[in-house]
Amino acid sequence: MQIEVVYALEKEQTLLSLDIQEPYTVQNAIEKSKIMDKYPEIDLTKNKVGIFGKLAKLDSILREKDRVEIYRPLIADPKQIRKQRAAEGKQMRSKK
């Protein structure tokens, strides 16, 4: 069965294709891909994982053509960023 394991940094993305036997878990696929050798900062106790953009557990069973995604921690609070952008927008409108 074919699956993909992906990890993305700000300026670099890695996509690895694997041919695996069923049943295989998310964690098995990540370990088999050896992506953690290339990115030692990945910590499966801290980094969240997903399948096609939906959060998944490490023991989730994979299906044909699944894409396992390893997520990086957020560097900023999304709510705070929206507030900052809204404030900047108000400043820009008031200058016109």
Please summarize what this structure is.
With 96 residues, this protein is an alpha+beta fold. It has 3 helices and 5 strands.
In whole angstroms, the N-to-C terminal distance is 58 Å
Main CATH class: Alpha Beta
Order of strands, widest sheet:
2-1-5-3-4
> How would you classify the helix and strand content by structural class?
alpha+beta
Order of helices and strands: EEHHEEEH
Q: Count of helical segments? A: 3
Q: Can you count the beta strands?
A: 5
Could you say how many structural domains there are in total?
Answer: 1
CATH architecture designation:
Roll
Please name the CATH topology: Ubiquitin-like (UB roll)
Draw up the topology in text.
Elements: E1 2-8, E2 13-19, H1 26-33, H2 35-38, E3 49-51, E4 54-56, E5 67-70, H3 78-95
Parallel strand pairs: 1-5
Antiparallel strand pairs: 1-2, 3-4, 3-5
